């Protein structure tokens, strides 16, 4: 299944990439997730995860990160391309992988529509 891997090129790793996404201030949210995003001028989307400490201990935060990564990995073909995403979970308890997958797909599609509505993106600077 080579199409479902999660190689490094699909991840946001640098601080400046996270800062660029947060500078755009384009976000969507639901009961499970907050998703920030900006265009990246690539043929694929990239994922960054920010889990606040208020969610719980390290084991809870790591489980949440694994669920979000797995949701992105499995649903990547259904997601719009060319967007850098930073996902912030709202809760550390009470959700299942299926909930996150549905939430992620819905939110990223809404975010993509919102980004396409705004022609003045700062992503052209880089």
Overview of this protein structure:
- It is a single chain.
- By secondary structure, the protein is α+β, with helices and mostly antiparallel strands.
- Helix content is 39%, strand content 17%.
- The chain has helices at 15-24, 58-75, 97-117, and strands at 27-29, 33-39, 46-49, 83-89.
- It has a four-stranded mixed sheet, with helices on both faces.
- Strand 1 and strand 2 (33-39) form a beta hairpin.
- The longest helix is centred in the C-terminal third of the chain and has 21 residues, at 97-117.
- It is globular.
- The mean pLDDT is 88.
What does the average pLDDT come to?
A: 88
The low-confidence parts are none
Morphology call: globular
What is the gyration radius calculated from CA atoms?
A: 14 Å
Roughly how much helix do the residues carry, as a percent range? Answer: 25-40%
Secondary structure: number of strands: 4
The total count of helices amounts to 3
H/E topology pattern: HEEEHEH
**Largest sheet properties:** 4 strands, mixed
Widest β-sheet, arrangement of strands: 1-2-4-3
* Proportion of strand residues: 15-25%
Span between termini: 33 Å
* Helix-strand category: alpha+beta
Protein traits:
4 strands; 126 residues; alpha+beta; globular
Task: Describe the structure concisely.
This protein is of the alpha+beta class and 126 residues long. Helices cover 39% and strands 17% of the residues. It has three helices and four strands; from the N terminus they run H-E-E-E-H-E-H.
